[in-house]
Write a structure and sequence with these properties.
single chain; about 200 residues; alpha/beta; five-stranded parallel beta sheet; four-stranded parallel beta sheet; about 20% helix; flat
Length: about 200
């Protein structure tokens, strides 16, 4: 990282105010092209984000997770294209208590995992886990599916169990299609000239 100004306990930040020609990012990780970010993770092209995770192309987001294209958001989980809203889950209005409980359970099932909207952490690992060795010019934005790959299955299963669950909203935010059939570990058999061959799909 270079040309750093007002940097405090932040990692993997590119094109964002505080690290690499950026200002005012505090205790944040995997932040790309973002301003005024505080205690937040996996934030991309967003502004005024506080204690939130997986935020993309949004402004004024607080205490929320998985927010895309929204403004003035508080205590929400996986919402898209919303303005001035609070206590929503998958674009459905709920109570503050329920939204908070769902967000808390979801974060616990993530087990500290967060989406990463750039390749900064891969560069960090490749450079001896020393940020001073990372060339900030090599940090590049990644697409949503890459950012969210590796999301714990337990967290996904929990979200799918919610009555508010919406597979299309989840796919738009994360790039993950939960309707895809996962055949990994399944056995398939084929018979050729009377002989049957069996294999396990990896």
């Amino acid at each position: 990282m270079n040309n750093e100004k007002s940097i405090y306990d932040s990692e993997g930040v590119n094109g964002s105010d505080a690290v690499s020609w950026s200002y005012g990012v505090n205790r944040s990780y995997g932040v790309n092209v973002s301003n005024g970010v505080n205690v937040s993770d996996g934030v991309n092209r967003s502004y005024g984000v506080n204690r939130s995770y997986g935020v993309n192309g949004s402004n004024g987001v607080s205490m929320s997770n998985g927010v895309n294209g929204s403004y003035g958001v508080y205590n929400c989980l996986f919402i898209i294209n919303q303005r001035g809203v609070a206590d929503m889950v998958f674009n459905k209005q709920t109570t503050q208590e329920r939204a908070s409980l769902i967000i808390q359970e979801y974060r616990e099932k993530l087990n500290s995992w967060t989406p990463k909207y750039n390749n900064a952490f891969k560069l960090y690992d490749a450079n001896g886990k020393e940020w001073k060795n990372v060339d900030a010019s090599q940090i590049q934005e990644v697409d949503n599916k890459t950012a969210w790959e590796g999301m714990p299955k337990e967290a996904i299963d929990y979200l799918k169990s919610l009555p508010e669950w919406d597979a299309e909203i989840f796919k738009e935010i994360t790039g993950i299609d939960t309707n895809e059939i996962n055949l990994s570990g399944s056995e398939v058999s084929v018979t050729v000239n009377g002989k049957t061959y069996t294999a396990v799909i990896k």
